[in-house]
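Q: Sequence in, structure out?
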Amino acid sequence: QVQLVESGGGLVQAGGSLRLSCAASGSIFSINAMGWYRQAPGKERELVASITNGGSTNYANSMKGRFTISRDNAKNTVYLQMGSLQPGDTAVYYCNAMIRNSDGWRNYWGQGTQVTVSS
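A: Exactly. Output:
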């Protein structure tokens, strides 16, 4: 059984920063891409950023220059450093990972962590 557990969300003022973490645990053979998505009320879930196991990154246009994704492969953990936060960044942030275990490759999601940016 595989779990993704996020942490680091919370309330921050506009212009502030937050760092999210997501740790994968359980029966894991290997992890390919990991990423962060977000979903604001009344909106669809959207990609924030992703990172391959080799370190190649991809960002949504609105996050470029403000957010940085990174990972620690030894810890099966992915991070999202968020800066210059704006009220429009308020959303539930979800961790995502493509993980191989005894069942083969599967896409896993975390439970989500709330990020609220006040003006």
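Residues 77 and 113 are 15 Å apart (CA to CA).
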